[in-house]
Amino acid sequence: MMAISNSRKRKKYTVIAGSHKIHLGDKTKIMGIVNLTPDSFSNDGLFQSGYTAEKAVSFAKKLIKQGADIIDLGGESTRPGSNRISEKEEIARIIPAIKLLAKDVSVPISVDSYKPRVVKMALDAGATIVNDIMGTNPDKSLLKMVKDCNAAIVLMHIKGIPENMQRNVSYSNLIENIYKILQKSIEKCFEIGIKSDRIIIDPGIGFGKTLENNLEIVNRLNAFRSLNKPLLIGTSRKSFIGKVLDKEVDDRLIGTVSTVCTSIIRGAHIVRVHNVAAIKDAVIMTDAIVNEKIIQPDKE
Q1: pLDDT for the residue numbered 48
Q2: 29: helix, strand or coil
Q3: Could you tell me which residues are beta bridge partners of residue 71?
């Protein structure tokens, strides 16, 4: 009988983020998005309904109840062509919410920022993960903060910056280019003293990528397996889904579910999404298929 190798089994990791031990490999973790912005591409920024820190916390707790394993708070839109805001404004948007949330929930809190001062205040307020969209060239002072605060970091690939990342996008070899850049970023973390079990990678869907690039990344996620780091993927509501399906941003749930399921099969450990409740069942079902058994909830 021919021996068949199951190469789709995900590698297992334990990520240390502050006091949290995040076990990855059997059960896909869901990162719930909390946008504290007035100009989110996905039309879900809490500023649109009259923002308060209390509202942000209430929304985050709702996502946790729906099944979010991690909460990711961001105060600056990074959609294509978006404008940067000041550190002062970003701090005003996210720090009060992080302080309140950290006192009231047990799941890890991630701060979606690349600005050292913002990150330092977020870590001091109770965040334990830094979701750095500028992970292709991470700021050394930011990396030192991650190390000193015993936090974890998500290194995301981006080509350019949000203001110009979708202009004249081209790669000599998409997957190889992303792989090598993320490899260098991981090495920078090691040089600062960040331990291997505190690093997560993200190939950066939509950040300096064409429609075809995004489809290739999702389909070839397992190419990043040999970087030996857990993999986060963020496809939720993004424009490539809209282009494939000819759907507006509020009508991309089914497309998002499809990309999430495919990403898990291809090796993703964490999926970053808006619609936690709707995604939860898809994640559980896909995990059962990948593992060929029902996965029981894990305990920290």
Answers
A1: 55
A2: strand
A3: 32, 109
pLDDT, tens digit, 9 for 90 and up, residues 176-225: 999 999 999 999 999 999 999 999 999 999 999 999 999 999 999 999 99
Confidence of residue 144 (pLDDT cuts 50, 70, 90): very high
299 catalytic per annotation? no
Which tokens go with 100? 């309140």
Q: Is 93 a catalytic residue?
A: no
Selecting among 159, 238, 252, 266, the annotated active-site residue is 238
How big, in percent rounded to 5, are the helix, strand and coil portions of the chain? 45, 15, 40
Residue 153 pairs in a beta bridge with: 130, 199
How many separate helices (H) and strands (E) can be counted in the chain?
9, 10
203's tokens: 């190939």
Query: Is-above-0.85 flag for pTM?
Result: yes
Domain architecture of the chain: domains with CATH: 13-289 (3.20.20.20)
